[in-house]
């Protein structure tokens, strides 16, 4: 824990004990910290049983008032979670909290993205999330019901979490061991043998296990179909400049111009030609007048040309006598400029008018019809529902929205929409042939009723229900065992609590019925991650490192190697459950209970290479590794994690060093 002025800062303050606030308290309790709370009124009921007993201090009052914050011991709090339903209250309370405790971490519930960014710069040590937007991706993925369990972007690359059952003809079946699937673009997250229950934690699988038919594997991969960026390549900027310069040469420019012309419609081609003709006349006229009248400057020449091309011939030559001597051919050219300018400006006005009218009619465009089959029925288009609809639309999946109230202006025109009484609307959305039915209204009892009606109309559909109360969700799960029941606030609370400990929660998704958080760490001096190998962090805390960026470097590496040692200022992104975050916060790692026994090196060169391999993978001092290799057979007296130790044995065999593992018994180790 952090220390401040000799006082252990272990308290956390939660402001707002609605559904989100209560789940935040529930998760904070798992970290074993002191929890204080403020609420405007005493909660009429507790969605989380025994929650009042977990609070060290409950203050009833306005969290914006300094006196109320002081009663809740804000001076001794490490973080404050401002999760009331009123954004103005949350923001005002954040300023009050910062004035009372300059070091406190501020976690705010707010949907104002631009304001949140400005507040982050102004207040510092700040994070803001919207409770309805965080779990939207989990609902969207549950609606898809396919192999994709999660997706998010890092450094411009799309990362996709895939759950796949191995078929008899699969390219990995009986051919690959699990450790072989870990590549520079992929990491295995979980593995379940046929007919066995799935495991919740990462790395609960044997690296040497061979994939068989009907086994289930989950992995995260870089989706290269949508990613063109080169991660961790120092020459990336140079390549981009080379491409830019290359594109300025004649052949690439000619190819792009031809492609643009062929892809343009007739109206755009006419507009382009009109602009080219007018620009040519304008420049040509200015040049001719400058050459013919050497006493006028370039500005005056351009001014005369502009007047003529905009139809101002009478302004220059409208009198009975010419204002200046002009040759007959320049006089005819001036007339031609005025006539051509009038014609082509009229064409441009017509094109612009057409575009304005088209945009006007676009607002009145009718929505597409309801899909016939294989679509997703999205019932309830509140803030959560609209966000889910946007994600499904982005994924190009057919869907139809159902809302009890008019939400035409808030739902994209590309989405079919049925409004009115929901029970009556269900007959209009081809429910019997729908792929998935997602019920996201704010009334969980109504969600259950609609879900039962949907199940009766389509027993084989993928049914997803939104709930608030956890006990109610458990009851629904027992009643409808094939239904995905997700609590929006329970999902979002994990992100709020994770952020309260100083981490940045980038995304979240559901994996094996548990929430997985995409969490970013910045390595500070003296924290639990400084100086550790990624192998120790991954296997000791049960998290999956997916990005590492060295301090001072612009490039980042996705799917980094286990051998990287973290230093102050480094950036690390991991996949973690709330349990993994708790272990990192408390510095409590899983036990390391495997020892390396080295039997024989085939040559002196093999012994030299073997020492380097041992030091690199185990993290021991190179002198210790060389001493070990000079005293064979010998045992490395440094416990390792199983995945780490097996990799070490494999790497040693590549340099012709024979070794094996020995099991030891260790108490839980503090890294």
Question: Would you write up a description of this structure?
Answer:
With 671 residues, the protein is an alpha/beta fold. The protein has 22 helices and 28 strands. The strands form seven sheets. The protein has a six-stranded parallel beta sheet, with helices on both faces. Helix 15 (444-457) links the parallel strand 16 and strand 17 (462-467). Helix 9 crosses helix 10, helix 10 (298-309) packs across helix 12 (328-363) and helix 20 runs antiparallel to helix 22 (642-654). It is globular. Residues 1-8, 226-246 and 666-671 have low confidence and may be disordered.
Task: Write a concise synopsis of the structure shown.
This protein is of the alpha/beta class.
Q: Please describe the biggest sheet, giving its number of strands, its sense, and whether it closes into a barrel.
A: 6 strands, parallel
Widest beta sheet: strand line-up: 5-4-3-6-7-8
Low-confidence stretches: 1-8, 226-246, 666-671
How big a fraction of the residues is strand? 15-25%
Q: Could you say which overall geometry the principal axes of the C-alpha atoms support?
A: globular
Spell out the key features of this protein.
single chain, 671 residues, alpha/beta, 6-stranded parallel sheet, 22 helices, 22% strand, disordered C terminus
Break the fold down into its secondary structure elements and pairings.
Blueprint: E1 3-4, E2 7-8, E3 11-15, H1 19-30, E4 34-39, H2 51-54, E5 57-60, H3 66-71, E6 77-82, H4 87-100, E7 105-109, H5 113-123, E8 126-129, H6 136-144, E9 148-154, E10 157-165, E11 186-192, E12 216-222, H7 236-247, H8 250-263, H9 266-292, H10 298-309, H11 313-317, H12 328-363, E13 376-379, H13 383-394, E14 399-403, E15 417-419, H14 422-425, E16 436-439, H15 444-457, E17 462-467, H16 470-479, E18 484-487, H17 488-500, E19 504-511, E20 514-522, H18 534-541, E21 544-549, E22 557-558, E23 571-576, H19 578-586, E24 588-589, E25 594-601, H20 604-618, H21 622-629, E26 634-640, H22 642-654, E27 657-663, E28 669-670
Parallel strand pairs: 3-4, 3-6, 4-5, 6-7, 7-8, 13-14, 13-16, 14-15, 16-17, 17-18
Antiparallel strand pairs: 1-2, 9-10, 10-12, 11-12, 19-20, 20-23, 21-22, 21-23, 24-28, 25-26, 25-27
